[in-house]
Amino acid sequence: MLDKTKRGWWKSAVFYQIYPKSFQDTNADGIGDLKGIISRLDYLEKLGIDGIWLSPVCQSPQVDNGYDVSDYCAIDPMFGTMADMEELIREAKKRGISIIMDLVLNHCSDQHFWFTEAKKSKDNPYHDYFIWRDGTPDVRPNDMWSTFGGPAWTYVSELGQWYFHQFAPQQPDLNWENPKVRRGLYDFIRFWVDKGVEGFRLDVIDQIAKEPDNKITSNGPRLHEFLRELSKEAFIEEGLVTVGEAWGANVERAKLYSAPDGSELSMVFQFEHMGLDSTTWEKWDFAPLPLVKLKDCYRRWQQELGEAGWNSLFFNNHDLPRIVSRWGNDQEYRVESAKMLATMLHGMQGTPYIYQGEELGMTNIKLELEQYVDVEIHNMYRDRTAAGRSHEEVMESIWKRGRDNARTPMQWTAGENAGFTAGTPWLTVNSNKEQINAEAALADPDSVFYYYQKLIEIRKKYDVIRSGSFTLLCPEDEKVFAYTRDTEHGHLLVVCNFSGEETPFECPESYRNADVLLANYKDRSNVLRPYEAAMFYYQD
Ligand code: TEU
Ligand code: CA
């Protein structure tokens, strides 16, 4: 049992991300809710996870599916009540599962009290909770662009001013230079700690320090000062686990973010691996995975961050396409490749995050444009077709990289709406729910679900995974990702064939008689079969 009052308990833990809107509906409105999550806690306990990262459930107009918060201390009625939230925290804790809330501190909703006040006048006490620039409606302060497309400035004619927003206009950036903003946010955090929340995921946390006039949108000079204050003033208990989303993180920055003394956060989500299979900095310009570059990327993060900080380990989240479609084979080798990808990730040092449905090998989906809901998809379609790209080309990008790939309803059964809702789902259910669903997985001892369950067990049983050094094998091989982990007496070999072809692999002599901890093929062969993966272990 993990002692969750002590810093570092998360180094032996495995977390699970729930996107509440798509997880389980219990009142037939087609939208997932808190009671739905409560009803599935036994499933999550069976999987063996230690904590749930809960994407936002606070009050929100849902312009960005809850990442536009209008009240940080209230549950949005579409997800349920505060009593439901308190029950979820209580029931999860009974099962040894911590609730880790998603905190959106970089911006709030334009319906938040702070912003509705701020817009009233320049001398309103809340006005400088946001970033304003005087001007005229025909000349923007500068040509900065929002992450979701369109200008990063919106004009308020009553004030004769523009305000800054890195995301939708309905998501005004908060002014972290203002100590009242910081204090207000810390109070929101303490409210949830008092409710029994045991950790937080921090949305775009490296973007809270910015200099819009110099077109700096993240990693501003005061970032680590702000994070140290946030840690000291809000994340007071050492057992609170905090993970920051940091698209701009590199190893050196991550050593500050995840310093072992707890001065900032427990760890960050860095995204270097998620940028390798694109031809430009834009994810929409997809390309095949350069495996050699991926291997070097992980080697650096494993060897250079290691215990100088702490790694998170993930392939999926609510913003990313499903990994079995992205880097595996979601057709004839779906199960093998889903297990292979999990083997590669879960053998590493760090805290793994399983995204809802990943443990089933859920896949991307192909919809018509009008079936998509995500603001980012629709804005990108508008901008790219306006720039002359064809409908077909833009749809290909959406099918491969759109965020709604990860947001289709969780597939519980082969039945109507995959057992997600008795109503009309807010987003189309993937028709492959006939084959891919939790009910079928629980009845199949060879399912991806039980493979993940085994990976979680192995992480907890073999200290070499939590603490071992990392050595990359065959760095130049373009099909095989193989590495070893070593402690003084424990030795682990992880071998993964990232290709759909048979490929040779020379097993190191020392592993010839090692135990096979798990494998995605039942028998052994002298070549690696398509998407074959295995973990070998010996003790000396
Ligand atoms: O995401 C940050 C972010 O920049 C990504 O969404 C990026 O735009 C892209 O979609 C990645 O493929 C965080 C949240 O995870 C995301 O859901 C929110 O939309 C965004 O911040 C604004 O809060
Ligand atoms: Ca509902």
Descriptive account of the structure:
The chain has 540 residues and is an alpha/beta fold. It has three domains: 9-107 and 179-452, TIM Barrel, CATH 3.20.20; 113-164, Oligo-1,6-glucosidase, domain 2, CATH 3.90.400; 465-539, Golgi alpha-mannosidase II (Immunoglobulin-like), CATH 2.60.40.1180. It has 15 helices and 18 strands. An eight-stranded parallel beta sheet has the order 11-10-9-5-2-1-13-12. A hairpin with a 6-residue loop joins strand 14 and strand 15. The longest helix has 16 residues, at 179-194. It is globular and about 75 Å long. The model has no long low-confidence stretch (mean pLDDT 97).
Give a short overview.
This protein has 540 residues and is of the alpha/beta class. It contains 15 helices and 18 strands. 27% of the residues lie in helices and 15% in strands.
